[in-house]
Protein 1
Amino acid sequence: MLKVDVEGAESEVFKGFREILIRDKPTLLFEILPSYSTENRFRVERQSEILDLLHSIGYQINRLQISGEGEFKGMNQVDDFGIHGDLSQCEYFATPR
């Protein structure tokens, strides 16, 4: 398992670990902060880079559902991080398909 919480540098981390992700296929736990609006082009583009990279090497991405008290409620498969401002929707779990 690889846990990534690097305050906005996720794209660089996943690019740097690309060969390891392909070879070892670790489960990933990571945070992607929301983009809030389409006007935040920098963050939207970085999120797209992460999605494209993980999907291209065969990862399925799930958003963890966490209650306001921090309790795990489940997870839902996502194909996009989406445009939102909900900080409770920032935790992800990815597994190789």
Protein 2
Amino acid sequence: DKQIEWIVNFQRENDLRFGEAAVELGLARREDVLWALSQQFHYPYAIDEKQVNPELVIAASPFSDEAEAFRELRSQLLMGAMAPDQPRRALAVVSPDVGDGKTYLASNLAAAFSQLGGPTLFIDADMRTPRSQDVFGIANNRSGLTAMLSGRAEDGVVQRSSQLPSLFVLPVGAIPPNPLELIQRPAFSLLIQEMVSKFDHVVVDTPASTHGADARAI
């Protein structure tokens, strides 16, 4: 086929992937290439990229170098602390300061785990600067994590992502005056244990400066 030969030659000359070369030559649309790759490698992705926060690269740019780095990190975790032969646990992502990229890391890791097909939960426990509503495009109403910890939660607190079918999100809800104290209460640990029993993977975005914690599986 002359078109395939044309694409292959252009690919070699410009050091591109086959799909990228086809798009550059006007022989395929980027959406078609992404759809074909997602079917080949079983990676759900956001078809309407305009509705996805570009920060969520796993959904917006699933075959980018950044997305591949998150999948590699996921693989390392699955061979270590989150291996099948290890105790079930959640993954807490923390950092010393606001703006360190903690939510970027946590949200993309959660999305990467969800691409394995099992139900995955992202818990927004950053009660100082919650961002799950922006990253995942969900509602952050008063019925969220803080309501669950205070025993006032209603139905529908955990929301399903509209972009990734296996990803669920628990937003913060109402912002409390004492976020660290809430996370250090037994109720939070009990909630994590309950969620770990219900979901294949749980990723927690915690407040900055969580003393005595680090970014590891807990």
Protein 3
Amino acid sequence: MRHQRKTVKLQRKSAHRKSMLSNQVCSLITHRRIKTTLAKAKATGPIAEKMITLGKRGTIHARRQAAAFLKQKTAVKTLFEDIAPASADRSGGYTRITKLGPRMSDSAPMAFLEWVDYGPVVETDELAEATPAEAEEET
């Protein structure tokens, strides 16, 4: 029986899985939204929520615990200074999973994993397209 076996293995060895989930959370912190498979999103979500809980504590010990898992100083700094304060009044449910449908190549179910409280995601392509048009109008 599978009682008390909570870890989703994702067909990887433990070291690879821990490294992959750490990188997924760092990408989520950096980019505010990531596109990944549904299984990886479901595995990454609870870990990201634990990192927010550490960020809300704000102690040195919590910062060191987050740094030990994330292994990227810039991600830890962004987590503690930007993302955790934005979720200060929320008591849980910091992430959202939005299903996207199957991937074209292998029909794997895809999903967006994003922060609930951080606000809308601004695409960099839209900003790049808007800037040259404004420059032509000024000349």
Protein 4
Amino acid sequence: MTNMHLDIYTIVLILGISHLMQVLVFFHQYRVNKTYHGIGWWLMWSAAEFVGFSAILARAIPDLLHPAIIVQNSAIVSGTIFIYLGVRRFFEKDLEIKWLAFIFLGYLLFLNIFLFIWDNILVRSVVTNLFLAGIAYLTAYTLFKYKKEGTRGTAIFNSVIFIVHGTVFLSRTILIATGTPVTAMFTPSFFNFLPYFDALIVSLLWTFGFIIMVNQRLSTELRVSKDHFETIF
């Protein structure tokens, strides 16, 4: 049991390190591809996730438990919103920030109510999992709907990854609703391991997928420009 406890803690530590590396990757992409909108939002996603997973480690300190829960959930949830906004901006669509901000503030209100007024981990877990699943499905739909020539295959690949990611959190919601006990963060169980492994795998796939999508768009635009000038001359 002790080894599994350490394994969960180690996985969270690895997640924090991997997201820090993703911050550096997207920062570099943002610097060299400023003409493409959306990369800045993905940079904010990786930074928010780094903060969120760092806050999970602070939950092991009893005096920091409640502040860590607030920081963890708000950072991870806002990070998923940043991904969605980045996808919309990459495909040159309106951001819809107002209604997303309204929903996020509503989520924070629920989180605080069911943490400080009525401490109920079941309600917090259900609301958080539903929120993450909903944003994941919305991002998958956006990728699939607005995919362009040159990035079509990668956009579909990323869309499938988001569907899988959303299904993981929807499944967790169903498990809670059907009586699966919600235990402490570092309790060794499949229910607790699942979101960590999901976050580790899909975040790496998203990073590679988004970078490939940017490079494919660059290659497509260069090819179109080349064909245009060849036609002129």
